[in-house]
């Protein structure tokens, strides 16, 4: 194990002894260690570099330098790609006209990411399923392209041409190089994100993130109670760290017991009954998901510890720290439809796909959104097989919901029975869809689907052909509803808060 982990590591080998003790690749150990260090720095950043004590310039500098140090520790000289990608895109923003800047910036940023993914996969180490330098570049790509479109909206369009969310997110001046680098490479999000809007990040740096996020709260009250101008993130951070610890224990305990590739083992496929294969596949995917829960929840906790992520108050008066949260675990595990599962998975990526593609693409926005998502994820063939399968699953799930669900709403017992059936169906459909995403290559993915006789593909095709689905006009409100069925992430809470922010901004202006 030791020689392999050292060879595959592109960053520091200082933690190699710990890697050998816990039997994990050193690059993964580096990643977790850097995130824990970032958590400590986040608490220090919030207390000792509070906006009331220091200037935005100092906060930008410290956040950027710490982020670049963590990148260097984890990825070595490969971290230069972060600066190259950011530098090329910033040059496009500066020298290209505002009318076309966002398009060229999108092409350059995404193209550089794809080029790096191709070289990493097909030149260096095909199938290296570990921490790699293109992971942070994926988040930086989201940030750069979002910023380019928001600058285009703020500087080249009239407010009447923008939707409420675009109006709030629009950037009214060109960011300085320091602000740009701080946004892309700050220590809170350099390794695992999540993506956030530029305006929200600048408000956090300048100390405006705790201003009332809703018009009715402008007088300092909410739910009839006075609120502190700066609520503490302590409870939210502790809760998320406990979730991280639980997810890590579950993942380390189960992922070796239920490897996904065993589902295509010849002896297992030949001897195990089909229902056993279904149960095994569900357990294998269930054991795999806590890894993503751990990474995304820890990243969210780091941002919260620094004071970033406040999103108003709940109905009971408790502060919400979910502005940039990336998932909702219980809603994922208890989802009763394909749509609900995707609504609560990788939420910030869904926001990005909606803002830069779905809302703006004049031709087939759904197909374009799936294509962009596949290109952004990488160049493994399994990714594209998953997204193609996902299109069929989404269309079939919508057809079933429109035609069959109303018949089960007559009584509570029927609805409960429908929920149980759809929960089982959703879990099987999700597992079936994402197997190529895990196996990566074409041959094992086709082998898996062949062992299932492409049954769910054929079933989805049959459902789409037989069950009619009402056509939808592409009105702005319906676009937002439609995206929830085709992309990852829940838009509802964010859009409500964004629209309120837009109203508050207009009132202030």
Automatic annotation (TrEMBL):
According to the record, the segments passing through the membrane are 29-49, 61-84, 104-123, 237-258, 270-288, 382-400, 420-442, 448-469
| Coiled-coil region list | none
Record key words, sorted = Acyltransferase, Endoplasmic reticulum, Membrane, Transferase, Transmembrane, Transmembrane helix
Q: Where is the composition biased (Polar residues)?
A: 478-503
A Gene Ontology annotation in the biological process aspect, one of them, is: lipid modification
Keyword Glycosyltransferase: yes or no?
no
Where does it reside? Endoplasmic reticulum membrane
Renumbered residue ranges of the record's region Disordered: 477-509
Membrane topology type: Multi-pass membrane protein
Which domain of life does the protein's organism represent? Eukaryota
Which terms in the GO cellular component ontology are assigned?
Answer: endoplasmic reticulum membrane
On whether Acyltransferase is a keyword of this UniProt record, the answer is yes
Task: Spell out the molecular function terms from Gene Ontology.
Answer: acyltransferase activity
The main place the protein resides is endoplasmic reticulum
Q: Which PANTHER family match?
A: LYSOPHOSPHOLIPID ACYLTRANSFERASE 2, PORCUPINE
In Swiss-Prot or TrEMBL terms, this protein is called Membrane-bound O-acyltransferase domain-containing protein 2
């Amino acid at each position: 194990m030791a020689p392999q982990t050292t060879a595959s590591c592109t960053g520091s080998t200082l933690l190699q002894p710990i890697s050998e003790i816990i039997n994990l690749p050193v690059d993964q150990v580096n990643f977790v260690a850097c995130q824990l260090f970032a958590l400590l720095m986040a608490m220090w950043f919030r207390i000792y570099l509070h906006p009331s004590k220091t200037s935005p310039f100092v906060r930008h500098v410290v956040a950027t330098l710490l982020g670049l140090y963590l990148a260097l520790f984890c990825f070595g000289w490969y971290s230069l790609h972060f600066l190259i990608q950011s530098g090329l895109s910033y040059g496009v923003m500066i020298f290209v006209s505002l009318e076309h800047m966002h398009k060229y910036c999108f092409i350059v940023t995404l193209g550089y990411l794809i080029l790096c993914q191709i070289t990493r996969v097909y030149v260096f180490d095909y199938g290296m399923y570990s921490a790699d330098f293109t992971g942070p570049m994926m988040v930086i790509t989201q940030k750069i392209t979002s910023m380019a479109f928001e600058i285009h909206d703020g500087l080249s369009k009239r407010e009447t041409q923008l939707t409420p969310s675009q109006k709030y997110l629009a950037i009214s001046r060109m960011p300085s190089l320091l602000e740009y680098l701080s946004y892309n490479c700050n220590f809170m999000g350099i390794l695992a994100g999540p993506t956030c809007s530029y305006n929200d990040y600048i408000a956090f740096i300048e100390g405006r993130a705790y201003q009332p996020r809703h018009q009715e709260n402008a007088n300092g009250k909410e739910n009839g109670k006075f609120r502190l101008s700066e609520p503490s993130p302590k409870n939210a951070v502790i809760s998320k760290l406990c979730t991280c610890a639980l997810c890590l224990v579950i993942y380390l305990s189960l992922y070796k017991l239920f490897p996904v590739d065993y589902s295509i083992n010849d002896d297992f496929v030949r001897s195990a009954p089909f229902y056993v294969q279904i149960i095994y596949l569900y357990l294998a995917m269930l054991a795999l998901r806590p890894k993503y829960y751990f990474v995304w929840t820890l990243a969210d906790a780091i941002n919260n510890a620094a004071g970033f992520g406040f999103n108003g108050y709940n109905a009971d008066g408790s502060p919400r720290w979910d502005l940039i949260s990336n998932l909702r675990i219980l809603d994922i595990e208890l989802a009763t439809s394909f749509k609900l599962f995707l609504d609560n998975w990788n939420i910030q990526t869904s926001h990005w796909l909606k803002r830069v593609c779905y809302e703006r693409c004049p031709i087939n926005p759904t197909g374009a959104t799936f294509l962009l998502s596949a290109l952004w994820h990488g160049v493994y063939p399994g990714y594209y097989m998953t997204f193609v399968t996902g299109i069929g699953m989404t269309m079939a799930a919508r057809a079933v919901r429109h035609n069959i669900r109303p018949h089960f709403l007559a009584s509570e017992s029927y609805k409960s029975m429908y929920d149980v059936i759809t929960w089982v169906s959703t879990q099987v459909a999700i597992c079936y869809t994402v197997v190529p995403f895990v196996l990566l290559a074409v041959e094992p993915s086709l082998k898996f689907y062949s062992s299932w006789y492409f049954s769910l593909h054929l079933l989805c095709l049959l459902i789409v052909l037989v069950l009619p689905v009402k056509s939808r006009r592409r009105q702005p409100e319906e676009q937002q509803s439609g995206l929830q069925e085709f992309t990852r992430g829940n838009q509802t809470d964010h859009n409500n808060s964004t629209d309120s922010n837009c109203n508050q901004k207009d009132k202030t202006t």
